[in-house]
Write a structure and sequence with these properties.
Low-confidence stretches: 3-21
Number of helices: 4
Mean pLDDT: 88
CATH topology: Hypothetical Protein Ychn, Chain: A
Helix content: 25-40%
CATH superfamily: DsrEFH-like
């Protein structure tokens, strides 16, 4: 009986390690930002930053007017209480390894813009690859 109790306690002690090592991928956050409204952009990037700070992998796709955030010469207003802008939050996320892309139709539909007008490190999304990414069960999708 004593041996059974020791074995039972040993199994209980190591059970959390067994369950913690499942083979499911970690949840990821995919943020699609289309709004040209700076306050909406700020809220989306604040939430993306907070998720990233909680060890959630983040990926950002900028489309429509929000794609302008990815332009080298674009400015955005600072918001209180942090006195930071959406562009500053985007740059911080990029500096920490977050993938940021503009929609595949963004540049071709803007006169006088090319990939050289984008901030270094911003890519152009390929729809088949984005669709494959989005359909993964561990990807949480948010649109602003």
């Amino acid at each position: 009986m004593k041996l059974f109790l020791i074995l039972f306690l040993a199994v209980l002690a190591f059970a959390p390690l067994t369950f913690a090592s499942d083979n499911h991928p970690q949840d990821e956050l995919f943020v699609v930002l289309t709004s040209g409204d700076a306050e909406t952009q700020m809220m989306a990037l604040v939430l993306a930053t907070q998720s990233f700070n909680q060890d959630v992998p983040v990926r950002i796709l900028l489309c429509s007017e929000a794609g302008d955030l990815a332009l080298k010469n674009a400015e955005s207003p600072a918001f209180k209480p942090a006195d930071r802008s959406p562009k500053q939050l985007l740059m911080n996320l990029m500096n920490n390894g977050v993938t940021v892309e503009v929609c595949g139709i963004y540049l071709p539909n803007r006169e006088h813009l090319s990939a050289s007008d984008l901030i270094e490190g911003v890519g152009t999304a390929r729809p088949p690859e984005v669709a494959a990414y989005m359909k993964q069960p561990h990807v949480r999708y948010f649109s602003f």
